[in-house]
Specification:
about 600 residues, mainly alpha
Length: about 600
Amino acid sequence: EPLPLPADSAVADGGPPRLLALCCCVALLQLRQWVRSVQVGALSCCAPVPVPALPSQLQDAESFEDGADGVAGHGEQAHVAPGASGRQAKKGGLGQECGDPPAKALAYEADEYNMVIVLLGKLRLWKEAVGMLADMERNGLKPDLCCYNAVLKALQISGKFKESVEMLTEMWAENVLPDEVSYMIIIATFGQAGMWVEALQLLADLEKRGVKASCKPYSAAIVACGRCGQAEKAMQVFDYLPELGLEPDGLTFGAILGVLGKDGDWRGTIDMLRRIREAGLKPDSVHYLAAMNACNRKLRGYEALQLMVDMYKDQVKPDSAVYNLAINTCRKSGLNEQALELFKEMKEEGEERDSRTYSAVMGASRTCKEAVALLADMKVDKVKPDMAVYGSLINTCAREGELDQARSLLGEMKAADLNPDVLIYNTIIRAAHEAQQWGVVGDIFEEMVPNEVRPDVVTYNTLVKTAGDSREWQRALGLLDDMRSQGLKPDLLHYRSLIFLCERCQQFDAALDVYYEMKKASLLPDGKTVESLVRICRKIGRRDLAEEIGNTKVTRSDPRKGSEWKSNARNVRQDREDREERPQDRRPTLSVAIAGIEE
Protein backbone atom coordinates (compact mmCIF):
# COMPACT_ATOMS: atom_id res chain seq x y z
CA GLU A 1 0.00 0.00 0.00
CA PRO A 2 1.19 3.57 -0.64
CA LEU A 3 2.96 4.96 2.39
CA PRO A 4 1.25 8.01 3.94
CA LEU A 5 3.98 10.65 3.64
CA PRO A 6 2.44 14.11 3.22
CA ALA A 7 4.83 16.59 1.69
CA ASP A 8 4.43 19.19 4.42
CA SER A 9 5.07 16.98 7.46
CA ALA A 10 8.31 16.22 9.26
CA VAL A 11 9.63 12.76 10.08
CA ALA A 12 12.38 11.39 12.35
CA ASP A 13 14.87 14.16 13.23
CA GLY A 14 12.80 16.81 11.57
CA GLY A 15 14.00 15.83 8.10
CA PRO A 16 11.59 16.17 5.22
CA PRO A 17 9.92 12.94 4.08
CA ARG A 18 11.18 13.32 0.49
CA LEU A 19 14.74 13.31 1.79
CA LEU A 20 14.16 10.19 3.87
CA ALA A 21 12.46 8.50 0.94
CA LEU A 22 15.38 9.18 -1.37
CA CYS A 23 17.84 8.01 1.28
CA CYS A 24 15.87 4.77 1.51
CA CYS A 25 16.29 4.34 -2.24
CA VAL A 26 20.06 4.87 -1.96
CA ALA A 27 20.34 2.35 0.85
CA LEU A 28 18.26 -0.15 -1.10
CA LEU A 29 20.41 0.24 -4.21
CA GLN A 30 23.66 -0.14 -2.26
CA LEU A 31 22.39 -3.26 -0.51
CA ARG A 32 21.20 -4.72 -3.82
CA GLN A 33 24.63 -4.04 -5.34
CA TRP A 34 26.41 -5.77 -2.46
CA VAL A 35 24.14 -8.85 -2.68
CA ARG A 36 24.60 -9.11 -6.44
CA SER A 37 28.36 -8.69 -6.10
CA VAL A 38 28.51 -11.63 -3.71
CA GLN A 39 26.28 -13.72 -5.97
CA VAL A 40 28.50 -13.27 -9.03
CA GLY A 41 31.59 -14.04 -6.98
CA ALA A 42 33.12 -10.60 -7.38
CA LEU A 43 33.42 -10.19 -3.63
CA SER A 44 33.63 -12.25 -0.53
CA CYS A 45 31.09 -11.66 2.21
CA CYS A 46 33.54 -9.44 4.09
CA ALA A 47 34.76 -7.44 1.11
CA PRO A 48 33.82 -3.79 0.57
CA VAL A 49 30.97 -2.86 -1.72
CA PRO A 50 31.89 -1.73 -5.25
CA VAL A 51 29.86 1.47 -5.42
CA PRO A 52 28.63 2.35 -8.90
CA ALA A 53 27.36 5.74 -9.88
CA LEU A 54 24.04 6.43 -8.23
CA PRO A 55 21.21 7.46 -10.53
CA SER A 56 21.38 11.21 -10.98
CA GLN A 57 17.91 11.55 -9.47
CA LEU A 58 19.46 10.34 -6.21
CA GLN A 59 22.64 12.44 -6.49
CA ASP A 60 21.18 15.81 -5.54
CA ALA A 61 23.99 16.94 -3.27
CA GLU A 62 22.04 19.89 -1.92
CA SER A 63 19.07 17.71 -0.95
CA PHE A 64 21.17 15.11 0.78
CA GLU A 65 23.69 17.37 2.51
CA ASP A 66 20.88 19.47 4.05
CA GLY A 67 19.68 16.63 6.24
CA ALA A 68 21.87 13.59 5.74
CA ASP A 69 24.18 14.03 8.74
CA GLY A 70 22.39 11.36 10.71
CA VAL A 71 21.38 9.26 7.72
CA ALA A 72 24.69 7.92 6.46
CA GLY A 73 25.42 6.34 9.81
CA HIS A 74 29.24 6.46 10.00
CA GLY A 75 31.80 8.67 8.37
CA GLU A 76 31.33 10.95 5.41
CA GLN A 77 28.48 10.49 2.94
CA ALA A 78 29.75 8.71 -0.16
CA HIS A 79 29.73 10.97 -3.20
CA VAL A 80 29.81 9.03 -6.44
CA ALA A 81 30.87 10.55 -9.73
CA PRO A 82 28.78 9.62 -12.72
CA GLY A 83 30.63 8.21 -15.63
CA ALA A 84 30.89 5.43 -18.16
CA SER A 85 32.15 1.93 -17.48
CA GLY A 86 34.52 1.34 -14.60
CA ARG A 87 32.86 3.92 -12.37
CA GLN A 88 34.30 3.90 -8.89
CA ALA A 89 33.62 5.62 -5.62
CA LYS A 90 35.67 8.63 -4.66
CA LYS A 91 37.98 8.50 -1.68
CA GLY A 92 36.17 8.31 1.60
CA GLY A 93 33.23 6.39 0.06
CA LEU A 94 31.39 3.38 1.41
CA GLY A 95 33.51 0.39 2.40
CA GLN A 96 36.87 2.15 2.48
CA GLU A 97 37.72 0.80 5.94
CA CYS A 98 37.97 -2.75 4.59
CA GLY A 99 40.42 -1.94 1.82
CA ASP A 100 40.25 -0.70 -1.74
CA PRO A 101 37.31 -1.82 -3.84
CA PRO A 102 37.82 -3.87 -6.98
CA ALA A 103 38.89 -2.01 -10.06
CA LYS A 104 35.59 -2.52 -11.82
CA ALA A 105 32.24 -1.78 -10.21
CA LEU A 106 28.99 -3.38 -11.26
CA ALA A 107 26.59 -1.19 -13.24
CA TYR A 108 22.94 -0.87 -12.39
CA GLU A 109 20.54 -3.09 -14.25
CA ALA A 110 17.04 -2.39 -15.53
CA ASP A 111 15.37 -4.51 -12.87
CA GLU A 112 17.07 -2.43 -10.16
CA TYR A 113 15.75 0.76 -11.70
CA ASN A 114 12.31 -0.89 -11.84
CA MET A 115 12.59 -1.73 -8.15
CA VAL A 116 13.41 1.88 -7.25
CA ILE A 117 10.61 3.23 -9.48
CA VAL A 118 8.13 0.97 -7.66
CA LEU A 119 9.41 2.21 -4.30
CA LEU A 120 9.22 5.86 -5.36
CA GLY A 121 5.68 5.28 -6.59
CA LYS A 122 4.55 3.88 -3.25
CA LEU A 123 6.11 6.91 -1.58
CA ARG A 124 4.11 9.14 -3.98
CA LEU A 125 7.29 10.64 -5.41
CA TRP A 126 6.05 10.52 -8.98
CA LYS A 127 8.41 13.18 -10.35
CA GLU A 128 11.42 11.21 -9.16
CA ALA A 129 9.91 8.03 -10.61
CA VAL A 130 9.47 9.66 -14.03
CA GLY A 131 13.00 11.06 -13.85
CA MET A 132 14.38 7.54 -13.47
CA LEU A 133 13.55 6.83 -17.13
CA ALA A 134 15.82 9.64 -18.33
CA ASP A 135 18.50 8.51 -15.89
CA MET A 136 18.41 5.00 -17.34
CA GLU A 137 19.15 6.39 -20.79
CA ARG A 138 22.06 8.42 -19.42
CA ASN A 139 23.49 5.20 -18.05
CA GLY A 140 23.13 3.40 -21.35
CA LEU A 141 19.96 1.49 -20.50
CA LYS A 142 16.76 1.64 -22.53
CA PRO A 143 13.62 1.66 -20.38
CA ASP A 144 11.61 -1.46 -21.04
CA LEU A 145 7.89 -2.16 -20.70
CA CYS A 146 8.20 -3.12 -17.03
CA CYS A 147 9.83 0.20 -16.16
CA TYR A 148 7.18 2.20 -18.03
CA ASN A 149 4.39 0.25 -16.35
CA ALA A 150 6.03 0.90 -12.97
CA VAL A 151 6.05 4.65 -13.75
CA LEU A 152 2.39 4.47 -14.83
CA LYS A 153 1.56 2.80 -11.52
CA ALA A 154 3.43 5.55 -9.67
CA LEU A 155 1.37 8.14 -11.54
CA GLN A 156 -1.84 6.27 -10.69
CA ILE A 157 -1.00 6.26 -6.99
CA SER A 158 -0.47 10.03 -7.15
CA GLY A 159 -3.60 10.55 -9.29
CA LYS A 160 -1.74 12.11 -12.25
CA PHE A 161 -3.96 11.24 -15.20
CA LYS A 162 -2.56 13.89 -17.59
CA GLU A 163 0.99 12.67 -17.06
CA SER A 164 -0.22 9.10 -17.57
CA VAL A 165 -1.52 9.93 -21.05
CA GLU A 166 1.74 11.73 -21.87
CA MET A 167 3.67 8.64 -20.74
CA LEU A 168 1.51 6.44 -22.98
CA THR A 169 2.26 8.72 -25.95
CA GLU A 170 5.96 8.53 -25.14
CA MET A 171 5.81 4.73 -25.09
CA TRP A 172 4.41 4.63 -28.61
CA ALA A 173 7.02 7.18 -29.76
CA GLU A 174 9.90 5.20 -28.21
CA ASN A 175 8.61 2.00 -29.81
CA VAL A 176 7.88 0.45 -26.42
CA LEU A 177 4.57 -1.17 -27.21
CA PRO A 178 2.07 -0.77 -24.35
CA ASP A 179 0.34 -3.94 -23.23
CA GLU A 180 -2.99 -4.54 -21.50
CA VAL A 181 -1.41 -3.75 -18.12
CA SER A 182 -0.41 -0.29 -19.37
CA TYR A 183 -3.94 0.49 -20.50
CA MET A 184 -5.47 -1.06 -17.39
CA ILE A 185 -3.40 1.22 -15.13
CA ILE A 186 -4.28 4.39 -17.07
CA ILE A 187 -7.97 3.47 -17.24
CA ALA A 188 -7.92 2.97 -13.47
CA THR A 189 -6.24 6.38 -13.11
CA PHE A 190 -9.05 8.02 -15.06
CA GLY A 191 -11.57 6.17 -12.93
CA GLN A 192 -10.02 7.54 -9.75
CA ALA A 193 -10.30 11.05 -11.21
CA GLY A 194 -14.00 10.53 -12.04
CA MET A 195 -13.35 10.67 -15.80
CA TRP A 196 -15.34 7.70 -17.05
CA VAL A 197 -15.72 9.11 -20.57
CA GLU A 198 -11.95 9.26 -21.06
CA ALA A 199 -11.63 5.77 -19.60
CA LEU A 200 -14.00 4.35 -22.23
CA GLN A 201 -12.27 6.30 -24.99
CA LEU A 202 -8.95 4.82 -23.89
CA LEU A 203 -10.52 1.38 -24.04
CA ALA A 204 -11.57 2.12 -27.61
CA ASP A 205 -7.99 3.22 -28.38
CA LEU A 206 -6.74 -0.13 -27.12
CA GLU A 207 -9.00 -1.92 -29.60
CA LYS A 208 -8.09 0.47 -32.41
CA ARG A 209 -4.35 -0.13 -31.99
CA GLY A 210 -4.83 -3.88 -31.86
CA VAL A 211 -3.36 -4.40 -28.41
CA LYS A 212 -4.01 -7.97 -27.36
CA ALA A 213 -5.99 -7.83 -24.15
CA SER A 214 -7.77 -10.08 -21.70
CA CYS A 215 -10.60 -9.00 -19.40
CA LYS A 216 -8.29 -6.87 -17.21
CA PRO A 217 -8.58 -3.48 -18.96
CA TYR A 218 -12.32 -4.02 -19.42
CA SER A 219 -12.67 -4.74 -15.71
CA ALA A 220 -10.83 -1.48 -14.99
CA ALA A 221 -13.26 0.36 -17.29
CA ILE A 222 -16.22 -1.22 -15.50
CA VAL A 223 -14.86 -0.03 -12.16
CA ALA A 224 -14.20 3.45 -13.60
CA CYS A 225 -17.83 3.73 -14.77
CA GLY A 226 -19.04 2.48 -11.38
CA ARG A 227 -17.00 5.10 -9.53
CA CYS A 228 -18.83 7.80 -11.49
CA GLY A 229 -22.30 6.32 -10.99
CA GLN A 230 -22.54 5.09 -14.59
CA ALA A 231 -23.91 1.62 -13.87
CA GLU A 232 -25.59 1.34 -17.28
CA LYS A 233 -22.34 2.11 -19.13
CA ALA A 234 -20.52 -0.43 -16.97
CA MET A 235 -23.12 -3.03 -17.90
CA GLN A 236 -22.62 -2.22 -21.57
CA VAL A 237 -18.90 -2.85 -21.27
CA PHE A 238 -19.57 -6.15 -19.49
CA ASP A 239 -22.04 -7.31 -22.14
CA TYR A 240 -19.55 -6.36 -24.85
CA LEU A 241 -17.02 -8.99 -23.74
CA PRO A 242 -18.66 -12.01 -25.51
CA GLU A 243 -18.47 -10.10 -28.81
CA LEU A 244 -14.68 -10.02 -28.36
CA GLY A 245 -14.57 -13.73 -27.60
CA LEU A 246 -13.71 -13.05 -23.94
CA GLU A 247 -15.28 -14.98 -21.10
CA PRO A 248 -15.66 -12.93 -17.91
CA ASP A 249 -13.44 -14.18 -15.11
CA GLY A 250 -13.85 -13.83 -11.36
CA LEU A 251 -12.22 -10.38 -11.39
CA THR A 252 -14.61 -9.09 -14.05
CA PHE A 253 -17.65 -10.50 -12.29
CA GLY A 254 -16.41 -8.89 -9.09
CA ALA A 255 -16.07 -5.54 -10.86
CA ILE A 256 -19.60 -5.53 -12.30
CA LEU A 257 -21.07 -6.83 -9.03
CA GLY A 258 -19.38 -3.98 -7.19
CA VAL A 259 -20.92 -1.47 -9.57
CA LEU A 260 -24.41 -2.99 -9.32
CA GLY A 261 -24.08 -3.22 -5.54
CA LYS A 262 -23.15 0.44 -5.26
CA ASP A 263 -26.08 1.32 -7.53
CA GLY A 264 -28.48 -0.68 -5.33
CA ASP A 265 -29.49 -2.98 -8.19
CA TRP A 266 -30.24 -6.01 -6.00
CA ARG A 267 -32.01 -7.88 -8.81
CA GLY A 268 -28.99 -7.37 -11.05
CA THR A 269 -26.56 -8.66 -8.40
CA ILE A 270 -28.62 -11.80 -7.76
CA ASP A 271 -28.82 -12.42 -11.51
CA MET A 272 -25.05 -11.91 -11.80
CA LEU A 273 -24.43 -14.53 -9.10
CA ARG A 274 -26.50 -16.93 -11.17
CA ARG A 275 -24.42 -16.12 -14.26
CA ILE A 276 -21.24 -16.80 -12.30
CA ARG A 277 -22.44 -20.31 -11.51
CA GLU A 278 -23.52 -20.86 -15.11
CA ALA A 279 -20.02 -19.88 -16.26
CA GLY A 280 -18.58 -22.70 -14.17
CA LEU A 281 -17.13 -20.35 -11.58
CA LYS A 282 -17.70 -20.29 -7.85
CA PRO A 283 -18.90 -17.06 -6.21
CA ASP A 284 -16.64 -15.89 -3.41
CA SER A 285 -17.21 -13.67 -0.39
CA VAL A 286 -16.41 -10.50 -2.40
CA HIS A 287 -19.18 -11.29 -4.87
CA TYR A 288 -21.68 -11.93 -2.10
CA LEU A 289 -20.58 -8.78 -0.28
CA ALA A 290 -21.48 -6.69 -3.34
CA ALA A 291 -24.90 -8.34 -3.60
CA MET A 292 -25.47 -7.79 0.11
CA ASN A 293 -24.55 -4.14 -0.32
CA ALA A 294 -27.24 -3.76 -2.98
CA CYS A 295 -29.84 -5.33 -0.66
CA ASN A 296 -28.72 -3.01 2.13
CA ARG A 297 -29.16 0.08 -0.04
CA LYS A 298 -32.67 -0.92 -1.08
CA LEU A 299 -33.72 -2.34 2.33
CA ARG A 300 -34.28 -5.85 0.99
CA GLY A 301 -34.06 -7.82 4.22
CA TYR A 302 -35.53 -11.10 3.01
CA GLU A 303 -33.25 -11.12 -0.04
CA ALA A 304 -30.27 -10.55 2.28
CA LEU A 305 -31.28 -13.60 4.33
CA GLN A 306 -31.61 -15.65 1.13
CA LEU A 307 -28.08 -14.59 0.16
CA MET A 308 -26.82 -15.96 3.48
CA VAL A 309 -28.51 -19.28 2.65
CA ASP A 310 -26.96 -19.28 -0.83
CA MET A 311 -23.53 -18.70 0.68
CA TYR A 312 -23.84 -21.90 2.70
CA LYS A 313 -24.98 -23.76 -0.40
CA ASP A 314 -21.93 -22.50 -2.32
CA GLN A 315 -19.72 -23.38 0.68
CA VAL A 316 -18.63 -19.77 1.08
CA LYS A 317 -18.05 -18.79 4.69
CA PRO A 318 -19.48 -15.35 5.52
CA ASP A 319 -16.89 -12.96 6.92
CA SER A 320 -17.37 -10.03 9.28
CA ALA A 321 -18.19 -7.58 6.49
CA VAL A 322 -20.98 -9.82 5.13
CA TYR A 323 -22.44 -10.37 8.60
CA ASN A 324 -22.36 -6.63 9.32
CA LEU A 325 -24.22 -5.79 6.13
CA ALA A 326 -26.75 -8.60 6.62
CA ILE A 327 -27.49 -7.53 10.21
CA ASN A 328 -27.81 -3.88 9.22
CA THR A 329 -30.07 -4.73 6.27
CA CYS A 330 -32.39 -6.79 8.46
CA ARG A 331 -32.49 -4.03 11.06
CA LYS A 332 -33.39 -1.33 8.53
CA SER A 333 -35.98 -3.63 6.95
CA GLY A 334 -37.74 -4.18 10.29
CA LEU A 335 -36.52 -7.79 10.65
CA ASN A 336 -35.12 -7.25 14.11
CA GLU A 337 -35.45 -10.86 15.27
CA GLN A 338 -33.51 -12.10 12.24
CA ALA A 339 -30.83 -9.47 12.86
CA LEU A 340 -30.38 -10.71 16.43
CA GLU A 341 -30.19 -14.32 15.19
CA LEU A 342 -27.46 -13.36 12.73
CA PHE A 343 -25.52 -11.66 15.53
CA LYS A 344 -25.80 -14.80 17.66
CA GLU A 345 -24.59 -16.91 14.74
CA MET A 346 -21.72 -14.49 14.15
CA LYS A 347 -20.54 -14.97 17.73
CA GLU A 348 -20.77 -18.75 17.45
CA GLU A 349 -18.70 -18.69 14.24
CA GLY A 350 -16.01 -16.66 16.00
CA GLU A 351 -16.18 -13.79 13.50
CA GLU A 352 -14.69 -10.51 14.67
CA ARG A 353 -17.23 -7.94 15.84
CA ASP A 354 -16.57 -4.23 15.54
CA SER A 355 -18.42 -1.04 16.36
CA ARG A 356 -20.52 -1.32 13.17
CA THR A 357 -21.73 -4.74 14.27
CA TYR A 358 -22.80 -3.55 17.69
CA SER A 359 -24.34 -0.38 16.30
CA ALA A 360 -26.64 -2.41 14.04
CA VAL A 361 -27.53 -4.93 16.75
CA MET A 362 -28.32 -2.20 19.27
CA GLY A 363 -30.69 -0.66 16.76
CA ALA A 364 -32.44 -4.04 16.40
CA SER A 365 -32.68 -4.69 20.15
CA ARG A 366 -36.13 -5.25 21.60
CA THR A 367 -35.73 -2.99 24.61
CA CYS A 368 -33.47 -0.19 25.74
CA LYS A 369 -32.18 -2.38 28.58
CA GLU A 370 -31.19 -5.11 26.15
CA ALA A 371 -29.33 -2.60 23.96
CA VAL A 372 -27.44 -1.06 26.89
CA ALA A 373 -26.43 -4.53 28.08
CA LEU A 374 -24.48 -4.98 24.84
CA LEU A 375 -21.96 -2.43 26.11
CA ALA A 376 -20.61 -5.15 28.41
CA ASP A 377 -20.11 -7.45 25.41
CA MET A 378 -18.19 -4.68 23.68
CA LYS A 379 -15.76 -4.49 26.60
CA VAL A 380 -15.19 -8.24 26.37
CA ASP A 381 -14.51 -7.94 22.62
CA LYS A 382 -12.28 -4.90 23.32
CA VAL A 383 -14.38 -2.73 21.02
CA LYS A 384 -14.50 0.93 21.96
CA PRO A 385 -17.93 2.57 21.56
CA ASP A 386 -17.95 5.30 18.93
CA MET A 387 -20.44 7.88 17.70
CA ALA A 388 -22.43 5.30 15.73
CA VAL A 389 -22.79 3.02 18.75
CA TYR A 390 -24.00 5.77 21.05
CA GLY A 391 -26.27 7.12 18.34
CA SER A 392 -27.89 3.71 17.89
CA LEU A 393 -28.25 3.29 21.66
CA ILE A 394 -29.84 6.71 22.11
CA ASN A 395 -32.16 6.09 19.17
CA THR A 396 -33.30 2.77 20.69
CA CYS A 397 -33.89 4.33 24.09
CA ALA A 398 -35.77 7.25 22.53
CA ARG A 399 -37.90 4.84 20.50
CA GLU A 400 -38.86 2.99 23.68
CA GLY A 401 -39.61 6.23 25.52
CA GLU A 402 -36.63 5.87 27.91
CA LEU A 403 -35.79 9.57 27.87
CA ASP A 404 -33.78 9.52 31.12
CA GLN A 405 -31.59 6.71 29.82
CA ALA A 406 -31.04 8.57 26.55
CA ARG A 407 -29.90 11.69 28.43
CA SER A 408 -27.63 9.56 30.59
CA LEU A 409 -25.99 8.11 27.47
CA LEU A 410 -25.55 11.65 26.17
CA GLY A 411 -23.55 12.42 29.30
CA GLU A 412 -21.45 9.28 28.83
CA MET A 413 -20.59 10.40 25.33
CA LYS A 414 -19.26 13.71 26.58
CA ALA A 415 -17.29 11.94 29.32
CA ALA A 416 -15.72 9.71 26.66
CA ASP A 417 -14.58 12.79 24.67
CA LEU A 418 -17.13 12.09 21.94
CA ASN A 419 -18.92 15.17 20.69
CA PRO A 420 -22.60 14.42 19.96
CA ASP A 421 -23.70 15.64 16.55
CA VAL A 422 -26.95 17.29 15.53
CA LEU A 423 -28.57 13.93 14.68
CA ILE A 424 -28.19 12.69 18.25
CA TYR A 425 -29.57 15.93 19.69
CA ASN A 426 -32.49 15.78 17.26
CA THR A 427 -33.26 12.23 18.39
CA ILE A 428 -33.48 13.26 22.06
CA ILE A 429 -35.44 16.42 21.27
CA ARG A 430 -37.96 14.40 19.24
CA ALA A 431 -38.27 11.84 22.06
CA ALA A 432 -38.89 14.62 24.59
CA HIS A 433 -41.51 16.15 22.28
CA GLU A 434 -43.33 12.82 21.90
CA ALA A 435 -43.22 12.40 25.70
CA GLN A 436 -44.73 15.91 26.01
CA GLN A 437 -41.85 17.05 28.21
CA TRP A 438 -41.65 20.59 26.84
CA GLY A 439 -39.07 21.68 29.40
CA VAL A 440 -36.66 18.91 28.39
CA VAL A 441 -36.97 19.99 24.75
CA GLY A 442 -35.82 23.50 25.68
CA ASP A 443 -33.00 22.21 27.92
CA ILE A 444 -31.56 19.95 25.22
CA PHE A 445 -31.80 22.75 22.66
CA GLU A 446 -29.94 25.09 24.98
CA GLU A 447 -27.13 22.53 25.34
CA MET A 448 -26.42 22.54 21.62
CA VAL A 449 -24.90 26.02 21.40
CA PRO A 450 -22.26 25.61 24.19
CA ASN A 451 -21.26 22.26 22.65
CA GLU A 452 -20.76 23.95 19.25
CA VAL A 453 -23.54 21.93 17.61
CA ARG A 454 -25.44 23.92 15.03
CA PRO A 455 -29.20 23.21 14.92
CA ASP A 456 -30.57 22.22 11.51
CA VAL A 457 -33.99 22.47 9.89
CA VAL A 458 -35.14 19.24 11.57
CA THR A 459 -34.30 20.70 14.98
CA TYR A 460 -36.38 23.82 14.36
CA ASN A 461 -39.27 21.81 12.92
CA THR A 462 -39.48 19.83 16.16
CA LEU A 463 -39.28 23.05 18.19
CA VAL A 464 -42.15 24.51 16.18
CA LYS A 465 -44.24 21.39 16.81
CA THR A 466 -43.48 21.68 20.53
CA ALA A 467 -44.49 25.34 20.55
CA GLY A 468 -47.63 24.41 18.63
CA ASP A 469 -48.64 21.74 21.13
CA SER A 470 -48.39 24.33 23.91
CA ARG A 471 -50.08 26.97 21.67
CA GLU A 472 -47.10 29.35 21.90
CA TRP A 473 -47.59 30.82 18.43
CA GLN A 474 -45.46 33.91 19.09
CA ARG A 475 -42.50 31.76 20.14
CA ALA A 476 -42.98 29.59 17.06
CA LEU A 477 -42.89 32.64 14.78
CA GLY A 478 -39.76 33.84 16.58
CA LEU A 479 -38.03 30.57 15.69
CA LEU A 480 -38.48 31.52 12.04
CA ASP A 481 -36.23 34.54 12.58
CA ASP A 482 -33.75 32.40 14.49
CA MET A 483 -33.49 30.04 11.53
CA ARG A 484 -32.71 32.87 9.15
CA SER A 485 -30.05 34.22 11.51
CA GLN A 486 -28.44 30.75 11.44
CA GLY A 487 -28.42 30.81 7.64
CA LEU A 488 -31.06 28.07 7.37
CA LYS A 489 -33.93 28.01 4.89
CA PRO A 490 -37.28 26.86 6.30
CA ASP A 491 -38.80 23.97 4.37
CA LEU A 492 -42.42 23.20 3.53
CA LEU A 493 -42.97 21.25 6.76
CA HIS A 494 -41.87 24.26 8.82
CA TYR A 495 -44.22 26.68 7.03
CA ARG A 496 -47.09 24.20 7.18
CA SER A 497 -46.69 23.70 10.94
CA LEU A 498 -46.73 27.49 11.47
CA ILE A 499 -49.88 27.93 9.37
CA PHE A 500 -51.67 25.14 11.24
CA LEU A 501 -50.61 26.65 14.59
CA CYS A 502 -51.80 30.14 13.63
CA GLU A 503 -55.15 28.73 12.49
CA ARG A 504 -55.55 26.83 15.75
CA CYS A 505 -54.74 29.97 17.76
CA GLN A 506 -57.01 32.07 15.47
CA GLN A 507 -54.10 34.26 14.36
CA PHE A 508 -55.32 34.52 10.78
CA ASP A 509 -53.26 37.53 9.71
CA ALA A 510 -50.08 35.85 10.97
CA ALA A 511 -51.01 32.72 9.02
CA LEU A 512 -51.35 34.72 5.79
CA ASP A 513 -48.01 36.42 6.47
CA VAL A 514 -46.39 32.97 6.73
CA TYR A 515 -48.07 31.98 3.44
CA TYR A 516 -46.68 35.03 1.66
CA GLU A 517 -43.20 34.26 2.99
CA MET A 518 -43.52 30.69 1.76
CA LYS A 519 -44.63 31.98 -1.64
CA LYS A 520 -41.66 34.37 -1.70
CA ALA A 521 -39.36 31.40 -1.02
CA SER A 522 -40.78 29.68 -4.16
CA LEU A 523 -42.25 26.79 -2.16
CA LEU A 524 -45.47 25.19 -3.33
CA PRO A 525 -47.95 24.29 -0.57
CA ASP A 526 -49.33 20.79 -0.23
CA GLY A 527 -53.03 19.92 -0.26
CA LYS A 528 -53.60 20.18 3.49
CA THR A 529 -51.88 23.56 3.69
CA VAL A 530 -54.11 24.89 0.91
CA GLU A 531 -57.23 23.62 2.75
CA SER A 532 -56.10 25.39 5.93
CA LEU A 533 -55.44 28.65 4.10
CA VAL A 534 -58.81 28.51 2.32
CA ARG A 535 -60.60 28.06 5.67
CA ILE A 536 -58.70 31.03 7.10
CA CYS A 537 -59.59 33.28 4.14
CA ARG A 538 -63.27 32.38 4.42
CA LYS A 539 -63.31 33.13 8.14
CA ILE A 540 -61.95 36.64 7.56
CA GLY A 541 -64.22 37.21 4.56
CA ARG A 542 -61.53 37.07 1.88
CA ARG A 543 -63.37 34.86 -0.60
CA ASP A 544 -61.36 36.22 -3.53
CA LEU A 545 -58.11 35.21 -1.86
CA ALA A 546 -59.63 31.88 -0.88
CA GLU A 547 -60.45 31.21 -4.53
CA GLU A 548 -56.94 32.28 -5.62
CA ILE A 549 -55.24 30.02 -3.09
CA GLY A 550 -57.62 27.18 -3.93
CA ASN A 551 -56.46 27.32 -7.54
CA THR A 552 -52.78 27.30 -6.53
CA LYS A 553 -50.67 24.51 -7.92
CA VAL A 554 -49.81 22.10 -5.10
CA THR A 555 -46.76 19.91 -4.63
CA ARG A 556 -47.09 16.14 -4.79
CA SER A 557 -44.22 15.53 -2.39
CA ASP A 558 -44.80 14.58 1.22
CA PRO A 559 -43.46 17.45 3.39
CA ARG A 560 -42.77 14.96 6.17
CA LYS A 561 -40.29 13.16 3.91
CA GLY A 562 -38.48 16.23 2.57
CA SER A 563 -37.71 15.79 -1.12
CA GLU A 564 -39.73 13.81 -3.62
CA TRP A 565 -37.94 10.61 -2.73
CA LYS A 566 -40.92 8.34 -3.40
CA SER A 567 -41.33 9.35 -7.04
CA ASN A 568 -37.55 9.18 -7.55
CA ALA A 569 -37.48 5.67 -6.09
CA ARG A 570 -40.28 4.62 -8.43
CA ASN A 571 -38.40 6.04 -11.40
CA VAL A 572 -35.21 4.20 -10.48
CA ARG A 573 -37.10 0.95 -9.91
CA GLN A 574 -38.96 1.27 -13.20
CA ASP A 575 -35.68 1.96 -15.00
CA ARG A 576 -34.18 -1.22 -13.58
CA GLU A 577 -37.22 -3.26 -14.59
CA ASP A 578 -37.15 -1.81 -18.09
CA ARG A 579 -33.49 -2.69 -18.41
CA GLU A 580 -34.10 -6.27 -17.29
CA GLU A 581 -36.88 -6.65 -19.87
CA ARG A 582 -34.66 -5.32 -22.65
CA PRO A 583 -33.58 -8.08 -25.10
CA GLN A 584 -29.95 -9.14 -24.72
CA ASP A 585 -29.16 -8.71 -28.42
CA ARG A 586 -30.47 -5.13 -28.42
CA ARG A 587 -27.98 -3.87 -25.79
CA PRO A 588 -25.55 -1.35 -27.27
CA THR A 589 -21.93 -2.42 -27.79
CA LEU A 590 -18.91 -0.46 -26.62
CA SER A 591 -18.49 1.20 -30.01
CA VAL A 592 -22.09 2.46 -29.86
CA ALA A 593 -21.53 3.66 -26.30
CA ILE A 594 -18.43 5.59 -27.37
CA ALA A 595 -20.37 7.13 -30.26
CA GLY A 596 -23.08 8.19 -27.84
CA ILE A 597 -20.48 9.82 -25.60
CA GLU A 598 -19.05 11.79 -28.50
CA GLU A 599 -22.51 13.02 -29.44
